[in-house]
Every structure is written in structure tokens, then in C-alpha cells.
Amino acid sequence: MKKLRLFALVLFILSLLISQVYANPPYKNVVIDPIIVKPEVYEVCSGKPYHDMKSRGIALVSYNDSWLLIGSPCWQCKNCYLVLATEGDPTYPYYEPIGTWAYKIYDEPINIYGACFDADYVGYCPDNRMDGYRFSY
Question: Where is the signal peptide (predicted)?
């Protein structure tokens, strides 16, 4: 009977030790730094991820010695003075594609009636929005 009690006591102590080991794993005090995911934002204009384009009348745009856009909406960035002419008006409440667009880099504001310029770059956008540009009146 004494051996049985001793055996039961040893078994009980071993079970406590084993449960203690499983309750406190060796990596319990290891601190894992959380992963911080930051979205990558490309700076486009003066610290912003977009050009803030304001309406500036109409544009007459030539490219490679021929007229490309005549009487199209003209826009100018209020921060860097980039001038953009678009075939369609992206601020209309109904869907109108931007279509052919052209820009020229200016170093000063243009007048409110628009601009006549030889384009630095020409592109096409089938949507009514362009990445990196926000249009407003």
C-alpha cells in the first residue's frame, strides 16, 4: 500500500511538472514585433500623389508641326503649373472619356482663357479619370 501511495505521489508530481512545461513553453517570453505595412505612395507634385488640375479655359495644341487639339478643355496644376489639354471633359457628371491628352511644363500660371502650346508629351486615356491627376473647376 505504501508503494502504491508513493507511486501515485510520484505520478502526481510528474504530471504537475509536465503540465507546467506545456503551460509555459520556452518561447513564452519572446516578443515578436508586429509587421507594419505602409502603403507606397508616389509623390507626383509637391508632396502630393496627384496634380491638382484647375480649369483654365480652352487649349490649342500642336504636336509634330500639326494641330492636335483645337478648342479642347485646358487645365493647369495649381502647384507646379503643368498645363494639360484633354479631348473630353473629365468633370462632366456623365461619363465622357478623356481621350487624347497633351501636356506642357510651364513655370508660371497661364491666364483664365487658356493656352496655345506645342505639346511636350501626348497620350490617350479611354477612361474619364487619369492616375495622378484630379480635375476641378
Answer: 1-23
Taking the C-alpha atoms of residue 57 and residue 111, their distance in angstroms, rounded to an integer, is: 8
C-beta of residue 60 within 8 angstroms of C-beta of residue 71: yes
Contact by Cβ (8 Å): 100, 69: yes
Residue among 69, 19, 61, 53 nearest 131 (CA): 53
Domain ranges of the chain: 51-136
Q: What is the DSSP letter of 64?
A: T
Could you give the CA distance from residue 99 to residue 125 in angstroms, rounded to a whole number? 5
What is the rounded CA–CA span in Å between residue 90 and residue 126? 11
Q: How far apart are the first and last CA of the chain?
A: 97
Given a cut of 70, the residues of the chain with pLDDT beneath it are 1, 16-33, 39-41
Q: What is the pLDDT of residues 57-78, one digit of tens each?
A: 999 999 988 998 889 999 999 9
Specify the amino acid at residue 124: Y
Cβ(104)–Cβ(68) below 8 Å: no
